[in-house]
């Protein structure tokens, strides 16, 4: 520990002495600058004014200008001046009016026949067999379908879709990979 402090002290002394010697060397190379006054500006001399322009008067024309054509004497005013022909003002252009569209009744979801009741796991097998008959991996589909049927007591109609018919239990069941479990 003592050797580290001695080394640090030696390094700081060396740094300061090197800096002091470099400042002494710079004094030898200093350049002296002398300032010289610039000469005073000379007053400006005005240029002489240009001579005035002389404009000559135009000379008289050599020939006589042609006389203007004779005008008709004005006719006496008529008692009833003719009125201009009557013109109808233009009518404003309106966009064509579309006929009202008929109001359709609100779209109601299709009504399905009631689902068959599921009381036990044995009731699930024929329903899941119909559901999974077109599936490419039938055994996997049957296993998932029977599990969902046993828990939710429902199997949707058809071979695909219609999962909302069995409610949230059937639609919200997911696998470990966070994918829907029920076919």
What structural keywords apply?
single chain; 183 residues; mainly alpha; flat
Global outline = flat
> By helix and strand content, what is the structural category?
mainly alpha
Using only CA atoms, what is the Rg?
Answer: 57 Å
Mean model confidence by pLDDT: 76
**Number of helical runs?**
4
Could you characterize what this model shows?
The protein has helices at 2-28, 121-131, 138-152, 168-171. With 183 residues, it is an all-alpha fold. It has a domain at 121-171.
Secondary structure layout:
Layout: H1 2-28, H2 121-131, H3 138-152, H4 168-171
Helix pairs in contact: 2-3
Q: Nutshell version of this structure?
A:
The chain is an all-alpha fold and 183 residues long. It contains four helices and no strands.
């Amino acid at each position: 520990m003592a050797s580290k402090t001695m080394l640090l002290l030696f390094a700081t002394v060396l740094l300061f002495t090197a800096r002091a010697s470099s400042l002494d060397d710079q004094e030898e190379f200093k350049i002296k600058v002398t300032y010289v006054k610039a000469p005073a500006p000379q007053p400006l001399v005005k240029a002489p004014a240009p001579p005035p322009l002389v404009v000559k008067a135009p000379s008289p024309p050599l020939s006589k200008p042609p006389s203007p054509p004779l005008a008709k004497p004005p006719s006496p005013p008529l008692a009833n001046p003719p009125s201009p022909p009557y013109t109808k003002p233009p009518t404003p252009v309106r966009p064509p009016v579309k006929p009202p569209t008929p109001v359709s009744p609100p779209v109601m979801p299709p009504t399905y026949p009631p689902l068959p009741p599921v009381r036990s796991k044995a009731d699930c097998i024929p329903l899941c067999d119909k559901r999974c008959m077109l599936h490419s991996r039938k055994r996997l589909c049957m296993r998932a379908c029977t599990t969902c049927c046993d828990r939710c007591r429902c199997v949707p109609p058809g071979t695909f879709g219609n999962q909302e018919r069995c409610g949230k239990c059937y639609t919200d069941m997911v696998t470990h990979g966070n994918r829907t479990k029920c076919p």
